[in-house]
Amino acid sequence: MPTVxxxxxxxxxxxVGAWTIAWRRLRRDKIALASxxxxxxxVFAAFAGGPIAAKLLGHGPDDLFPYAQHSLKPVGPWTxxxxxxxxxxxxxxxxxxxxxxxxLFVLGADGPLGRDExxxxxxxxxxxxxxxxxxxxxxxxxGVTLGLVAAYFGGxxxxxxxxxxxxxxxxxxxxxxxxxxYTVAGDKFARITVHGVFPQGVVSLVLIIxxxxxxxxxxxxxxxxxxxRHQAFVEAATSTGASDSWIIRKHLVPHVLPxxxxxxxxxxxxxxxLEAGVTFLGAGIRIPTASWGTLLSSTWGTVANPTGxxxxxxxxxxxxxxxxxxxxxxxxxxxxxxxxxxxxDPKAVR
Amino acid sequence: MSVGWRYFLRRILVSVVxxxxxxxxxxxxxxxxxxxxxxxxxxxxxxxxxxxxKARHRLGVDRPIATQYAKxxxxxxxxxxxxxxxxxxxxxxxxxxxxxxxxxxxRAAAVTGWLALGGVVLVIVLAIPAAMLAASRAGSWLDKTxxxxxxxxxxxxxIVIGVVLQTFAGNRWHIAPPSGYCGLTGQTANFxxxxxNNPVLCGGFRDWxxxxxxxxxxxxxxxxxxxxxxxxxxxxxxxxxxxxxxARAKGASEARVLRRHALPNTILPVITMLAMDIxxxxxxxxxxxxxxxxxxxxxxxxxAISGEQGFDLPVIIxxxxxxxxxxILLNLLADALLAVADPTIETRGARRAQAAGRVx
Lengths: 350, 360
What we know:
heterodimer, A: MetI-like fold, two-stranded antiparallel sheet, two-stranded antiparallel ribbon, 4 strands, B: mainly alpha, about 70% helix, disordered C terminus
């Protein structure tokens, strides 16, 4: 197989770019294709599937259904629940009113409050994915800028930026995320929604995760650009009078882009974990906004507000579903990252 | 070697500066949030302004921030991190009494330290032999199964692993205590749940180990999965090199090649990576301590951040300094180890960048 590939690559007059080679390799990588497919499905389900399902089922992710639990134990999957969303006030502990219809809970309810678990997993996915993508993007933006500048200009600039990177690295990441999440971000940034585009808390989580993880891409970019800076093609560009910004944009960025794609994919996986973790620790997304983190903590409580294990009200579904959602997404991002790593490495023999 | 010494001397100096900046930033974050430390000492709703002013004065928070910071640095240099705000009171002689942050942090650090140490032992004992097994049969069903299992270990949230283990092994099957901590020496009052008002006194090796079993497993699972993959890839890398072919050509058995020739070249970088992963380890320790209610550094900080009266600055800054120092120190150690194993600085940089690629 490799010989055929090599032969195709040396056909005169048809130079094959690194991206084309990578694409050809990617097409043959079944795991990468499966991961990409699953991810697009998840993204579609999270961003479009939530509203569609809500429309079809006739209730929303935050609607409370008092009859979707029996003595605080949430109903299981595929249950018809009395549709009480239209009734203004309910008598506590009374049997459900006769004159209302029922509404379907496909995956059951989320806990004693009786919200639709499926809708919450879908809407929560949107929040978790927005945090994951947003924070990875912000980290790459800051990291690439600082890493490129440090490596390209060297000397004093490099020293300053490198020490800055060392500083952020020495931060106990999670402790700081929680600290900032509880204080500054919790008070001032949590309400930023950019005119309702993002659910509450997303922007602040993107900011704090992005601001504490940019040093990873910065280090990667810096070490790569340092090894590229004195290579012939850069010197050739300098000797023909290319400006710094031209060299950075046209010659250096394309070289670090593959690595950043790989990092971005793996960072998205990490950020999903971080969102769940920080929320569990009480400093992330706040209830009632659904996210995979708040869904996990709806059963187990957060640090400030723990829920003990109670066998009478325990139901595995509300833990299982967000866990599976996180698991599949993280796995797909990690696998895609790993596949891209081997696919985008021009030296790798396949 | 003199160049190497100078390199490390510079790194140590930089580390001291880093720690200093870390403390400045923690102070800065603290002073951006509006709050009243005097609330820890007196009830602001039922006190006269004079009482509040007195409390503020005794706490030293009425002085300018720069003065407060200078006092903190001066005392910290003498090993004194002050007294925690939480639990402060005046005694009969009108003196301020409370828990010393130093002893609080040392006690919590011991718990986190035991957690991490046991976890690392589990990782080394389990991940390396499993990786050797997988690498020696690369491509077999055993190799593939092990790799698939590690994927689960990497992609499942540590909190979920903890909660599931706790619910089933702890609460349902009663294999090990589901939560709480017992000191290795002396007696600990152990509150097994947040709703528990009657602590059980426990202590000694058996109680200690039984309470640590589930936390150790939870802490180690992620790293076992991660390191199994890393060590396997490295072993496969090494097994393809010329000197291994030479060893095989001279008639060394496959087991001997693996143990005597391939493993030594893999083990040092792995231990180095473990040292560099301390940041990740601290994060996972926070999750584990929260799930199992272990009184470690993570729980200490969370309590100090989310307390009713607000931020307990002396505790938080002490934890940040201790954890920051540990991260810096272990990174330094990792670099020193790598320098011994591999004297060329270029490869060191590349390896560090490689290690930095994966995060939590």
